[in-house]
Each structure stands twice: as structure tokens, then as C-alpha cells.
Specification:
This protein is of the alpha/beta class and 274 residues long. The protein has 12 helices and 7 strands. The protein has a 5-stranded mixed sheet with strand order 3-4-5-6-7, with helices on both faces. It has a two-stranded parallel ribbon with strand order 1-2. Helix 6 links the parallel strand 4 and strand 5. It binds acetoacetyl-coenzyme A. Acetoacetyl-coenzyme A (CAA) binds next to helix 2, helix 8 and helix 10. Acetoacetyl-coenzyme A binds next to helix 2, helix 8 and helix 10.
Length: 274
């Protein structure tokens, strides 16, 4: 998601840095973005000039401290682990100017859990994009109790300038709005499957053809990533202590087998290059 969020920012005219852990990961991100953009140009969805200029505005780096030293806004999209994110926010607090807003793309780790790892809790919030970030319009803007109103306003303005539609939450709740609705659909789909009521393909078909969802719940888990779904559930359990939040056994089995969905070629469905 990080690479697509960065591309969205670069396309909107912002000078953008995409930071990751290794050159290999960054090379992979650049290739994937370039082929997405080439495809959009060939389908007439974007102008070649706009894409080329956006690619020039997008710097890729493994040196985060330098990349963020002058930036106004950081959107963190690391693994869904509280420990990892707290460490990143602590570092970002030292590496960025005082004015910089620090946002997390997490859908489950609410920003109040990160804010106190910085010396600027009033400039910390969640900015939650959806997958695939280049396509999906919604971004949830979620302040914690201590986020300054001006920071929320600026974030809403940023979202608007990215060509996205901001959904402003009045208070924090893990999963926010869209993922909680999605979670209810996913839970029901998994229960129907467990109870032998219908196959994965048919449950997905019902969601697509009866409800006009663009994808069924199982296809969507494969798109988002079984690993991500699994980690989100664990993070919610850690936050709430609610055992009902734990990953569904079938999701856990796929996760433990390393079947993460599209990214590994197998999840609920099997994928090949075609
Ligand atoms: N990345 C970037 N662009 C993509 C893409 C991807 N992974 N997949 C599709 N697209 C774009 C492309 O421009 C594509 O056109 P091309 O195939 O010509 O490149 C265009 O979308 C249309 O795609 P398709 O014709 O393949 O299929 P589609 O019309 O069904 O659209 C979809 C694909 C946009 C993904 C659509 O199926 C959809 O909206 N699915 C639901 C997605 C959704 O619910 N996302 C929310 C997930 S929850 C989440 O993200 C929150 C979280 O915290 C994890």
C-alpha cells in the first residue's frame, strides 16, 4: 500500500519520498508502479506527461532520516505491529521538523497508541487508505482525543487535494467505519463456508451479483492479503482482549501455510501469471 499511496501523492503534484527497508523492495515497488502507470497511459486513463512528471517527483530511498528531514507530512504504512510502529514514530519524531504531521495508514492500530511515543501527540493521527490505493476513493481521517483540530483540517485538505474522498471520524475505534462493515460481511461469509452452506466461489458470486460488490469477501481477502487480514485480527485482539476478534481458524490455516493470497499466488483462490 505504501508504494501506491506515495504514487497517489506524486500524481497530485507533491514532492514525495517512498522509503523502504531495502533497494530490492524499492526496485520492486518502482517496477510495479511503472507498469501500472504504463497500463493507465495505454488505456487512456492518464496522460504520459503527467505520469512522467509524477515519476520524477517520486524519490525512492532506504535512508529515512534524510528523506523526511524537510517533509511536511509522513504517512507510515509499515507492518501491522504496535511495536514496529511505535519505534518508527519515535524515530520520526527526531527526524522530522516540529511542524510535520505524522500519520499512520493502519486500520487497526489507533493513533493514541502511537502518539505518546512522540513529543508532538497533537500532530499524530490515522490516515487510512484502501487497497488498491491508486483506485479506491475513500480515505478515513481519524484523530485521537489529543489531535489538534487544525491537524485534522489539514489532513482532510490533503486528502481532497489527492483527489480522494475523506471520511472524518469523530472518535477512534479499531477498524474505523469501512473495515468494521467489511468485517461483519467477512465473518458471515466465513461462517456460511464453515457450515457448508456454499463454496467460496458461490459466496463470492452472491456478493458480486446480488449485492453488486465489486469483489466477494474471499476474493477481497486475497487482494488485501491473508497475512494482513490475520495481523489485523491479532492487533484487534491485543487491543480489546476480545477472543471473538481472533483470526478465524480457516484464515489462520492459510496464514500458517504461507498462502497469503495474490501476492503468493495462492490464498482462497490460486493465481498464475495470466
Ligand atoms: N493496483 C492498482 N490498480 C488496480 C489494481 C491494483 N492492485 N487492480 C485493479 N486496478 C485498477 C486498474 O486500473 C484496472 O485496470 P487494468 O486491469 O486495465 O489495469 C482497473 O482497476 C479495473 O480493474 P479490473 O478490470 O481488473 O477489475 P475491477 O473492475 O473489478 O476493479 C478493483 C478492480 C478496483 C480492485 C475492484 O474489484 C474493487 O473495487 N474491489 C474491491 C476493493 C475493496 O473493497 N478494497 C477495500 C479493501 S479493505 C482495505 O483496503 C482496508 C484495509 O485496511 C486492509
Amino acid at each position: 500500500m505504501g508504494s501506491q499511496i506515495a504514487m497517489v501523492c506524486a500524481l497530485a503534484g507533491y514532492s514525495t519520498s517512498l522509503v523502504d527497508l531495502s533497494d530490492e523492495l524499492l526496485d520492486g515497488a518502482r517496477d510495479a508502479l511503472q507498469s501500472r502507470m504504463d497500463r493507465d497511459v495505454s488505456r487512456g486513463r492518464r496522460a504520459r506527461d503527467d505520469v512522467d512528471r509524477a515519476m520524477e517527483r517520486l524519490r525512492l530511498s532506504t535512508d529515512r532520516a534524510t528523506a523526511v528531514s524537510e517533509c511536511d507530512f509522513v504517512i507510515e504504512a509499515a507492518a501491522e505491529s504496535l511495536e514496529v510502529k511505535r519505534r518508527i514514530f519515535e524515530d520520526l519524531d527526531r527526524e522530522t521538523p516540529r511542524r510535520t504531521i505524522l500519520a499512520t495508514n493502519s486500520s487497526n492500530i489507533v493513533s493514541s497508541q502511537l502518539a505518546d511515543s512522540t513529543t508532538r501527540p497533537d500532530r499524530v493521527l490515522n490516515l487510512h487508505f484502501f487497497n488498491p490505493a491508486l483506485v479506491m476513493e475513500c480515505v478515513e481521517v481519524v484523530p485521537h482525543d489529543g489531535t489538534a483540530e487544525t491537524v485534522v483540517d489539514t489532513s482532510m485538505e490533503l486528502v481532497r487535494s489527492l483527489g480522494k474522498s475523506g471520511v472524518r471520524l469523530r472518535r477512534e475505534i479499531p477498524g474505523f467505519v469501512a473495515n468494521r462493515i467489511l468485517g461483519a460481511i467477512r465473518r458471515e461469509a466465513l461462517e456460511l463456508h464453515d457450515a457448508g452452506v456454499a463454496d467460496v466461489e458461490d459466496i463470492d458470486r452472491a456478493a458480486r451479483t446480488a449485492l453488486r460488490h465489486p469483489m466477494g469477501p474471499f476474493e477481497l481477502m486475497d487482494l488485501v492479503g491473508i497475512d494482513v487480514v490475520h495481523l489485523i485480527r491479532l492487533a484487534e485482539f491485543e487491543q480489546t482482549g476480545d477472543e471473538g476478534a481472533l483470526p478465524h481458524p480457516a484464515v489462520r490455516r492459510l496464514y500458517e501455510a504461507g498462502h497469503f493470497g495474490r501476492k503468493t499466488g495462492r490464498g482462497w483462490y490460486t493465481y498464475d501469471d495470466s
